[in-house]
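Standup notes, protein team

Yesterday: finished cleaning the Paraburkholderia acidisoli set.
Today: Anhydro-N-acetylmuramic acid kinase structure.
Blockers: none.

Input for Anhydro-N-acetylmuramic acid kinase:
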Amino acid sequence: MSGTSMDGVDGIAVRFETGQRPVVLAEAFVGFAQGLREALFSLQQPGENEIEREALAGNALAARYAVCCHELLRAGNLSADDVKAIGAHGQTVRHRPEKGFTVQIQNPALLAELAHIDVIADFRSRDVASGGQGAPLVPAFHATVFGSQEETRVVCNLGGISNITILAATGAVRGFDCGPANALLDLWAERHLGKPYDENGQFAASGTPHQPLLNALLAEPFFEQQPPKSTGRDLFNVQWLDEKLVGFEALSPADVQATLVALTAVSVAREIERHAGDCRAVYVCGGGARNQALMAALQKALETGGVAGVPVMTTEALGVPPQQVEPLAFAWLAMRCVAREPGNLPTVTGAAGERVLGAIYPR
């Protein structure tokens, strides 16, 4: 899985057995070179010669995915013949379900050639074709590993974009995107620190949230939309942020970073209050789980927003390290595709019905 933070690819080797929890055999992270990151960022907005640039970036992604797969085989003491399939999400460069499409670039045919393993790709487009948002797709997986009949739980993914899965004690499942997370935090850190991210949230912790700016950011209509809903860099990008910062030029960069942390925390907490006020715990995964300032801000936003007494912790408490949740989810979706079982939840995405997700590229 390489998400909207676009820093690299997280991979796991996992064994699925009917009636058993998934068993992770190995994990690996392979970073993206700066040139590839720049190419991916440039494709987030319309530009010249997009078709060729997209194809070349897809080839480069496939090469990095192949490196990750080889690392997993080595770490897990596996051969290619031991692996049923690779689930490769690709890199989202456009997500416009309201116009009937979503685009995740990569070259799954090349990956199958390099890895000598079947590849499952293009998970989102079938859900979009059936009238859904194509996102989030992880709630169906969350329900299988994190659900409880004793209490309502919320699983919160803090990747480039934040999203939540509401796992009701009744078995009902809901989920949707909440707004920006690391996409804006990383952008601002790179601009002012020259680093790809704010390590442990130290930059944000050195500043103070600015309420007028926070109010201006929260005025974005997306935050008041009712689910099903999804978003991405098509909306929450550098242009959006720079437009919102007009009139706030006197703020220090650290105060802006602290305010962006507050934006993520408040937007998530509001959705939990609106749709999961009876939850008993919030379990965080994704890169944001390593941001101590963000985790603390989320706890504070819940306390002040009407969901007091609900602890915030990582999915480690449920037996799955935060960095493994997203790649594990897409391994699960690949497994479902191979078995011709549906992978989406219409109650989450708004699709017309359950659909088998993914396209198969044989080795």
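Follow-up from PR in the comments: The two ends are 20 Å apart (CA to CA).
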